[in-house]
Amino acid sequence: PEAATRYAALQSGEVDVIDNAQPDTIQSAEDANIGHLDSPRPGASNRLELNSSQAPFDDVLVREAFMRSVDVDGGIEALYFDTAPRSHSLLSSVEPLGYSDESLFTQDVEQANDLLDDAGWTERDDDDVRMKDGERLEIVMPVSTNQSVPAEQSLFEQFQSQASEVGFDMQINLLDLSSWYAALSEHNYDLVSAPYTKVGPSVLRILYHSDSIEPAPSGYFANNAQVDIPELDETLVQAEETTDDDERAELYEQAQQTVLEDHYVLPLYDQQNHFLYSADVQNMGDTSAIAAPEYYNVWLDQ
Length: 302
Hints:
About 35% of the residues lie in helices and about 15% in strands. By secondary structure, the protein is an alpha+beta fold.
């Protein structure tokens, strides 16, 4: 309802620019010849990070099984109306040192079932949820309603349904922002989507170096996947310190391969950053380092 109201205001001329436009609104606006600025944020992509510090995602087989159980491409295609191309990278598409490997994330339900069998989750309860040593295969996902748009929440619900087919009980908890932060600081999560904007690939050190597992006094920590690999730490430090561009690119690629191939993170798409503007708005397009529109050269044709 809020998105529809804002779009109606744009059509009527009550406002000239709206930000954070939703996928269906973007499609409608483009059909109506309203301007659309697609400006993905730099730094990290939007992604699901799996908490490897506790069961069940402390087992790489279970992490991969979850990723093989869900159809990310189909969900994005159905819900985003071609406004959010699929990512297979830890980094935004605007980051030149991003590394991708699509083969790591293709849906394969048979393989997901085999992986869970190999991990020892072979029993089923009356709800068809897998069990191991008397424990159910439950995974908890807190979702910030302040940061996650309706289309994304629907995507997570599709994952919930698809993961249940192989025996996961995925519980989605919709929370306000403060409650969401509290859930993370208390480690009351198994997977989470947490956007992070920073220019350049050094965002990888913030997100995946083991130092970022240690919480700040506020309780915040950036390494939500709880990746703790000394060799990765060393690679990330070397990548920041080297002055050789080729070495830097190689080190960041190695770091991304480690995180992706061990299935700590499921990339989804860029951090969405869309702006719609009326026909009266001219010269819209210049953006800041963090992809916010620059209005110094924008004018209204009236």
